[in-house]
Amino acid sequence: MGSFFRSEKMFLCQLFIQPEAAYSSVAELGEAGSVQFRDLNADVNAFQRKFVNEVRRCDELERKLRYVEAEINKENLHIPEIEDLPNAPNPREITDLETSLEKTENEILELSQNAVNLKSNFLELTELKYVLEKTEVFFTEQEGINGTDSLTRALITEDSSAQATNIRGRLGFVAGVVPRERVPAFERMLWRISRGNVFLRQAELDQPLEDPSTGNQIYKTVFAAFFQGEQLKSRVKKVCTGFHASLYPCPSATTEREEMVKGVRTRLEDLNMVLNQTQDHRHRVLVSVAKELQNCMVMVRKMKAIYHTLNMFNLDVTKKCLIAECWVPVRDLAGVRKALAEGGRASGSSIPSFLNVIETSEGSPTFNRTNKFTRGFQNLIDSYGVSSYREVNPALYTIITFPFLFAIMFGDAGHGLILTAFGLYMVIEEKKLMKQKSDSEIWNIFFAGRYIILLMGIFSVYTGFIYNDIFSRSLNIFGSSWTIDGYNISDIQGNAELTLSPYTNFAKFDASPYPVGLDPVWQAATNKIIFLNSYKMKLSIIFGVAHMIFGVCLSVVNHIHFKKSINIILEFVPQILFLLLLFAYMVAMMFIKWVIYYPQETVDCNNETVTCTQDVLDVIRYGPSCAPSVLILFINMMLFKSSPPTGIGCQEFMFDGQDVIQTAFVVVAVLCIPVLLLAKPLYLLCCGRSKKSEHTSENGDVNQGLELTPEMVDTPSPSPAHAEHNEGDNAVGEIFILQGIHTIEYILSTISHTASYLRLWALSLAHAQLSEVLWTMVLSIGLTGSADGDAQSYVVGSILLYVLFAAWAGLTLAILVMMEGLSAFLHTLRLHWVEFMSKFYEGAGYVFQPFSFKIILEGEDVVED
Amino acid sequence: MGASVVPILVFTILWGIVGIVLPFVVPKGPNRGILQVVLMLTAATCWLFWLCCYLSQINPLIGPKLSNRTVLLMAREWVS
């Protein structure tokens, strides 16, 4: 059965490693990934540990790598994924790595700095160029003053042209560039400080400019402010600095301006060339780094993980070797030994490291070795609680019981096929889908549960086939066992509804029932629900009781494994008796009712013309009218009541002597309660003492076994020993209280859990009804739309069908498969966690978290995402 | 008493093969135990599910109530 039946056996081991071999040994162990180290310096804070400096160095390296990565991403370069991961670097390689990284970082830093300088230079020149070009327009407009431009006229209204030239001669101006969104505020401010005496001309730049430091695109506007007098000039300049407007010198003479534009253009061209070259160089550097980046990243992460682990180690008193404690699965012990030897050889140390297995009573971590198929099921269990060490692992049984209980609720072959197809797609495309790591959380959850979904789908097809439900329609493969031979045509025409007689069909014609699943006739019957309710209710109780009995039986395996065989008599036997005598008996009654009551011709003994002899009465007893309700029988059994038979010739009980058996069953079941309540505490009181003393001496042995390292073993082991002693003193009361709670919980829960399984019936009924409603309300309208038979109605009908089919398919997917599937899933989860696992599962363990590079690297990827 | 021997036998043997015979022929390997449990549980649950459905129909105490339209259709389509 391997490890999946119960968690793997673990050893607590001590490793003695030479300091010089420590790094490479831990690296090897990290590659093997089968060891969980314990922190031996838990009381030492993070800054006082031995390898703090190394960890800090790794942090620094990581920071540099992140910087380089950010730069590469800015350039939109692709960082190639590496197929095989490099090993952790040797200590010697670390220095090389450091220097090369330092060099790259500096180079990139320098290049970026240069680029920023050049770019801001470029920006200034571009802005100047625009200023010159745009202001050119303003000036030419002013030159052509003769009243063509209304704005110019507004400035110098009602002045004679002579005056105008005069004033213009004394007008000063400032030209510059301001961000576009600030223009309105800027304009208003200028207006206010000058009381309207500043004239502002502006022209928007069509192309956005790039901010050199952030690389953002900014839209700017060129402006020229005209004013009069020095005082106003200084004020205008202040406003400009306030609005972060950059001012540029702009000669007032046209020729000078032209000269300047020319000069600026040539300088811009030169600058552009230089910029391109810098860009190329930077690109080349980044491309060459990008190739190595992933490699470096993995190496640094591994290195950091190693030093973190080394920080958990203890230094020997003589400072000549490092001591580590770790949990190792027994199956991997040889691998660990090999890894240690390998590590020692790699570092060339003369003294080999060795491994010492120590006995311990401490709680070992729980390790269930899973594969891709079982992992999903194990996760279902682990999210309830990680199983205690070496406890029976319910995940093994969940593989089938989970999809099956789901399918009872989701029973529809059509919907099951959709689910199967979805699961199959994910399973077949597994490798491809796994590579494209998706960010969508919902998809990841579905993908992680792909095998669960597949199995749920397959089982749903089976149960749907048995329920004879395919998108709420039935198949008549084997020929229905109901025929309508009993009626003639006038009967049929005269009555709107006809009931087929079970007697005619099954006794007279001796029909045998539909061999596989439900008879298709029920799909068309108007009293379908009555039949289905009785069938599905019984079904869910039968499966519920079977599931619970199975759970209680699993507790035996636990009792035997933990060497508490006495619990089998004191706990298991009363528990299972209680369950069997009451609820399994009810299940038995259901089967008896199915088998012994059969359809008969109605004989009316009230009628005086009919003589009912004893023989006839004996037959009537098993007729349809006399079949007692199992539920009423069960309630009467519990309350020691009796109710009168339903008619003449009927009996209250199904078989003779049933009342005696029932009374005996109830009495024994009730007697189980005090046994469950008292037997175990009393046994512990009488015989438990001697055992307890043995137990403490075992603890003493542990201490002696660890003589080699007295200082560290002293700390953990006394605490459990102390706890045991304290427990011994006030144990009596506690044991009784615990057992009392346990008993009450079990007794009450058997009753409530049995009722809880009725959700199987409720959900499967709801599912079937919902899908039938969808069929009759949506799709069947489309299917009957073209019944008239002329050409036009066919056209209309086909269009209607097209639309209605889309609606039906969409609703089927969204409501019946997705929502109903989710709700059935949750109910199944509950049935497993509460109803099944409470019978045997403790779930008080903690997960084995091996030190493994693979897990660390994958984990960081997830965090980054 | 409408129970017929054939379907009961066929289904019991079918699921019996899955649940009892197949677990013995599962290839050896680390997952042998898991496969055996899977097969046995599948057979047990599926067989019981079918059995419940079959037993609930061998002695029907009520008959299906059908509209006369359905009855006529049945008479035309289902009677061979």
TrEMBL record, chain A:
The keyword DNA-binding does not apply. It is a multi-pass membrane protein. One of its GO terms (cellular component) is plasma membrane. Its main location: membrane. It holds the Pfam family V_ATPase_I. One of its GO terms (biological process) is vacuolar acidification. InterPro entries: V-ATPase_116kDa_su (IPR002490), V-type_ATPase_116kDa_su_euka (IPR026028). Belongs to the V-ATPase 116 kDa subunit family. Essential component of the vacuolar proton pump (V-ATPase), a multimeric enzyme that catalyzes the translocation of protons across the membranes. Required for assembly and activity of the V-ATPase. This is V-type proton ATPase subunit a. The lineage of its organism: Eukaryota, Metazoa, Ecdysozoa, Arthropoda, Hexapoda.
UniProtKB/TrEMBL annotation, chain B:
The chain crosses the membrane at residues 6-26, 33-51. This is V-type proton ATPase subunit e 2. It holds the Pfam family ATP_synt_H. It is a multi-pass membrane protein. InterPro entries: ATPase_V0-cplx_e1/e2_su (IPR008389), ATPase_V0-cplx_e1/e2_su_met (IPR017385). Its main location: membrane. GO terms for molecular function: proton-transporting ATPase activity, rotational mechanism. Belongs to the V-ATPase e1/e2 subunit family. One of its GO terms (cellular component) is endomembrane system. It comes from Zootermopsis nevadensis (Dampwood termite). Keywords: Hydrogen ion transport, Ion transport, Membrane, Transmembrane, Transmembrane helix, Transport. It is found in: Endomembrane system.
